[in-house]
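FIELD: query
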Amino acid sequence: MRDLKDLLKPLGERPMPDRWDSIQHRQVGPMPEEPHRSRLGAGVAAAAIAILAIAVIAWLSPLGGTGEEAGGPSGGPPPSWLVDQAYQLAYTNGDITPDSAEWVLTDANTIAPAVGLQSGDPNVQEYLVVLHGTFTGYDASVPAGASLPTGKILTAAYAPDSQQVSDFGIGDQPVSVPGLTPFDLPDASQIYISPEGWTMPLPPGWRARATTVPAPRGPAQGTLITNSAAASSTPSGTETAVAAAGFPAAGVAMVISDLPPDGQTQPVVPPLHWSDFTQVSNDQGSTAWRVSLEGPRQIFSFEVRVGDNASPQDTAALHDMIAALAFGDQAGTLPSPSGTPGLPMQSSVVDDRFVSVVQLDGGAFSVQPAPIDTVPVLSKADAEKLLFASPLFQGKTAGVLGFGLITSQVSQHGVPTYQADPAWVAFGWGGATNCPMETAPPSPADLPSGGYVAVALIEGAGGGDVSYQARSDTCGTISGPTVRPATHIESVAWTANGQVTGGNLQITYTPPACAGPATYSAAGQGDTVTLTVEVELPNTAGSCSSPTPITDVVALNDGTQTVATVDHAPTGLVRQAQF
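FIELD: result
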């Protein structure tokens, strides 16, 4: 397929009107057994881009004029109104992603057999559309108890003046009309292109809009797609797509967001199938399903809610949309790194993103710039709180934090290797090491990144929070590299049991699950001190026994000073990095 720049080359240096956005976002127009599966598959993304480029050229070119396109038996693109009408008809009859579509402008007598008529007026010109797919005449008038018409071929005749259907039929008989010319259905205007790089056909009358989904680690960004009945629906912030309360009986809604993986659902790579979804709720009047979707650079949460009285057309459209979802080249073009790979430094990050390749231990652990369209799940503020609470940063005097693609070739302590996974990464370096048994400083070893540490919150398919200690010379002993699951320091709540006695205070606290032994620190002046109870926790808790309260006696001072007041330190994450 030709590159988009090549397709746009005929435009030369002409100024481009602001029509690109309107092309991308143009509005067009219990679950039953699954209808047919869409045939668009992964090819829809590439096709959408190519069609989109051609549409831009046709629209902007002065040769095209501003009027409606002309069409005829000699071929060429059909009028845009005919494409819209054909898409509406495909939607009404249960297949928005037909295998193929053809059109021709000819006389009504030639068209007649294709739409089930004996003859027509040879002096009247009409448009004929022929679609191949899996169709059901949901709106057909049939006697009570009779089956709706079904077939693999849908034909429709349109009057040029009214631009409405004059005759149509559904069946399996092949259609042979001279001059039939293929066209794309859905075309570029009927395919939604998300900011995250995925594409999906948008049925007539449906809406797509950006949305924010509440999440434990901060709001997740996503896209909400609804049919007309559910147009006012909003995400609930739970595992279901939208709030069940007040959801319309005829509604259909879906949310595709960059929520982090739940660790329990195996992500699915497109093309998707309805069987990939898991039911997560069955509420009064609607039901919700969910699947984890794996894109080229990150994991997405794909959630659907369907009203109990959703129309068969919308049910069929939902299945087609799911099967047609595809990713384009979301990886995009990487920024051009400056210079050769080297150690991290403050200038390695610009606007919170790595702009050069940095590495530890000669490339055993490295970060490269991420494509500009790769969007972090966490905000920088939330990532910084968790990353800089790592005990690895204790004593470090310098560091840098940014978003990039992490590669780690070391696998230890249950941590796998990673290859170009998107992540927030913080590096730390500098500081002195206390070696009390050394009478003289040891000869420094020739280590490329001695003393450097890194902690990463990985958002790619592998997931996980990882800490990395580079190969270092500590007090004359070379160790590392070392990779472990990342941990953080947290201040926990405590209660006093009585008064301070002899500089000691008995307290009770309940550590979080999976926490290590607690450490106490009391600081202050005069007769007032602030007591902190800190524990080290894994960023991702495993299977641990339920925590139980602990009662202990804390020495607030050496007993020579009177302590009258003991204040409680703030609880939560405790920053360990002092740079």
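FIELD: remark
Confidence is low (pLDDT under 50) at residues 1-74, 330-338.
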